[in-house]
Amino acid sequence: MGKVLAEVYDATPTATFSASTPRLVNLSVRKNLGSGVTMGFVLEGPGPTTVLVRAIGPGLSAFHVPGAASDPQLALYDSKSAKLGENNDWGGTPELASVFAGVGAFTLPSTSKDAALVATLLPGNYSVLVTGVNGTTGIALIEVYEVPK
Description:
This protein has one helix at residues 94-103; strands at residues 26-32, 37-43, 49-56, 72-78, 83-88, 115-121, 124-132, 139-146. It has a single domain, classed as Sandwich (Jelly Rolls). The strands form 2 sheets. The chain has a 4-stranded antiparallel β-sheet with strand order 1-8-3-6, with helices on one face. Strands 2-7-4-5 form a 4-stranded antiparallel β-sheet, with no helix packed on it. It is mainly beta.
């Protein structure tokens, strides 16, 4: 098994975006955590963008994914490697559940050990590092959604 770098771009010129322009609003990667998985993303535009970042392990059981990670945790970093946020066990808050619904993300049990956070970020480069708590491994789904204004 080797390493892969896959890049996806929304090629619509920024100047032509309007409220009705179809656009890329979600990226996800499903991978075995091993010692950790990093997913990068870039935000452009004239101002800040709010994003939902999730690391799904136990929540994959609803989709019959064998070997799902039992307890993923995530950390969000900027391009200077400054940690901007982290989460382990999303906690089932009504605020996060509302964001999940607003972006079209599948629901998670409120007591699940999946991880999630919402951050408002300036244009720039960001990365998400997902690891298993206490070095646990398994399949995880890492997601980044743009949260509508």
